[in-house]
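Re: that chain you flagged

S.,

Sorry for the slow reply, it's been a week of failed gels. I finally had a moment to sit down with the sequence you sent. For the record, here it is as I used it:
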Amino acid sequence: MPSAIAVDLPSGSYQIQIAPGNLDALGSQAANLGLGKKCLVVSNPLIFKHYGERVLNSLSQSGFQVQSCLLPAGERYKTANSIQKIYDVALENRLERSSTLVALGGGVIGDMTGFAAATWLRGINFIQVPTSLLAMVDASIGGKTGINHPQGKNLIGAFYQPHLVLIDPQVLKTLPAREFRAGMAEVIKYGVIWDLDLFNQLEACPRIEQLRYVSEELLAEILQRSCQAKADVVSQDEKEAGLRAILNYGHTIGHAVESLTGYRVVNHGEAVGIGMVAAGAIALALDLWDKESLERQNVLIKKTALPTKLPKGIEIEAIVDSLQTDKKVKDGKVRFILPTAIGKVEITDKVPAEVIREVLGEMRSH
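Prediction finished late last night. Pasting the structure tokens below so you have them in one place:
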């Protein structure tokens, strides 16, 4: 199932390489890019224990001088403090402008490594080696990098494209089931916003809540179609001037839920699942799509064993207030991505606050 997807951008194009066993090809792929000899692999201890040695060997066998920097796992460590640790190791190892940061991990590691690469020496090379489904289909592609502010998610960051995204589907075998479901939330998102055929394929699969129920063919299709969808959107709108905002479907309320629960209660994919249920219900309340489409979306989210209710103890007014700090706010108005059919969405800032409150009220955990 090897495939290569091009992300064509004004700032420079790169490839998403998908193939089983790709981890061992990292060195030769990186060497083909003509990068400088110094490499710093950023990872977390668990991922590094599984795959660190293979990645370091692959790079050093291709002539790279490789060091590593390990950061704690989890969204709550996506802070300026972690970035400082990367800078310290970069300085210690005298990384130069021609040097490369390699992100080996999930979305959090990818976001932080990318931000460090964008800002160290005003920008050095950067390669994404995503190890979670969520990072493979979404976070590693498109150049969004960043860290969280105590008041909101991803408020500090930069658009900074990688030189390569290298995906090895075999690493998903060590991914915890909860993290696999989190990635499936983003896959469902692509189905709703862009790719009806992908949505239909997920619908036809009896079980999709764990990797072992997903055939190799369907996994290949999920990776290929999701990466292609993201590449298509980003190629048309690199810096979110318009179309790219549709990739935030489910994220508006999702981000609020994540930050209000201190990134400890729900993970990113679970928050997106909750956010898609909310956005779907708002779209129905505004007559943008029909009840049957909403039901199909929600059945698929439930089939993935993702939450569809708000976490206990979260105040609706706190969510409404939190929406005002979202990056997508323009002229004080919150922009929502709302579906008009499965496979199509629109961007609107005309969602009355009472509709948001009503929908969230229905989603309270009892």
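What I noticed first: The two ends are 45 Å apart (CA to CA).

Talk soon,
D.
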